[in-house]
Q: What sequence folds into this?
């Protein structure tokens, strides 16, 4: 998920060369188990083994990033959790504070990845058994049905969902251009109902791309931010209906991260007002595009989830759920419905000036 979270995966069974369906890729899971099994047995991992790991579908994207920071963090965390990492090295990462994580994305990822890998090590045999015996095809079909039920209409029969790449990284999932990436330990830990809802959430992002607003300026961070708030806000209604505290507690998140998510949701109305004021200033050329981008990244926390979920919840509470789902791809309609709900529920309202600028910004 966004600035703070990475956030956020066909050939099945690469180790036995069998393809079940063109929808799931477990090659990175299998390479992870090969590496960690060697380390747990006290063996040295060869250069060739690491190359196989790097080239597996899930990890390949991170390997090919120019800086190499993330893949190096992944490998270092594997060594610490399963190999010869020192206690001091492990403790120095596990003792990273919430404030340090909020201020430094690299420190956040280091702690989240290592914590996840320690958890994998603690449940190693059970997770391997889950990988060998779980029916992934059934999960995908149930998740598509859940998405259809949520939207209130069938998924178009000719729509082809992206591949799903599983790997071990942090407890999250991410819809990207080439596929959907999902942490395997996260899938293992949650209930079957949660798995269905979680994947339906990611499928929603995938399906919405078919209809969502695009123009030549879609890479503009302002348009991206406006769009991602609706995208994540509606998707959270699929799998987080009981709220962030219950969802992330059941998902096994740390108390610090749960508190952060809840706090960001509780301040979403204030953040929305800040976003409104920032966009008004930008529309009047009172700040530069670079200044706008820096500030908007500070406001739209966790890739827009908290603000979007706040807005979507109030739209539903005001009785406009059907209208929202009928235009699930249209940011202007989403913000308009929020404004109607805000007026009825005595919440912060977006100004006419903002709405006029947004309408022009997102005009098809």
A:
């Amino acid at each position: 998920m966004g600035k703070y979270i990475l956030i956020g995966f066909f050939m099945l069974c690469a180790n036995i060369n069998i393809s079940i369906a063109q929808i799931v890729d477990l090659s990175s899971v299998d390479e992870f188990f090969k590496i960690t099994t060697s380390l747990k047995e006290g063996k040295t991992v060869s250069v060739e083994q690491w190359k196989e790991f790097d080239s597996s579908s899930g990890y390949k994207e991170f390997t090919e990033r120019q800086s190499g920071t993330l893949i190096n963090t992944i490998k270092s965390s594997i060594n610490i959790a399963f190999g010869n990492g020192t206690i001091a090295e492990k403790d120095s990462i596990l003792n990273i504070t919430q404030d340090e994580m909020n201020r430094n994305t690299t420190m956040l990822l280091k702690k989240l990845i290592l914590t996840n890998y320690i958890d994998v090590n603690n449940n190693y045999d059970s997770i391997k058994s889950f990988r060998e015996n779980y029916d992934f095809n059934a999960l995908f079909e149930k998740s598509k049905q859940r998405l259809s039920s949520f939207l209130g209409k069938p998924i178009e029969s000719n729509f082809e969902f992206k591949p799903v790449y599983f790997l071990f990284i942090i407890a999250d999932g991410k819809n990207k251009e080439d596929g959907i990436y999902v942490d395997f330990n996260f899938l293992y830990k949650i209930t079957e109902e949660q798995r269905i809802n979680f994947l339906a959430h990611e499928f929603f992002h995938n399906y919405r791309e078919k209809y969502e607003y695009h123009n030549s300026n879609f890479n503009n961070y302002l348009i991206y931010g406006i769009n991602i708030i609706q995208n994540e806000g509606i998707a959270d209604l699929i799998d987080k209906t009981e709220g962030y505290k219950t969802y992330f507690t059941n998902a096994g998140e740390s108390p610090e991260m749960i508190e952060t998510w809840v706090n960001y949701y509780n301040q979403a109305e204030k953040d929305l007002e800040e976003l409104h004021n920032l966009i008004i200033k930008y529309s009047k050329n009172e700040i530069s595009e670079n200044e706008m981008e820096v500030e908007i990244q500070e406001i739209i926390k966790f890739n827009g989830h908290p603000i979007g979920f706040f807005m979507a919840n109030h739209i539903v509470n005001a009785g406009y759920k059907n209208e929202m789902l009928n235009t699930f791809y249209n940011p202007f309609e989403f913000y308009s419905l929020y404004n109607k709900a805000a007026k009825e529920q005595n919440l912060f309202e977006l100004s006419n000036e903002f709405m006029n600028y947004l309408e022009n910004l997102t005009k098809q």
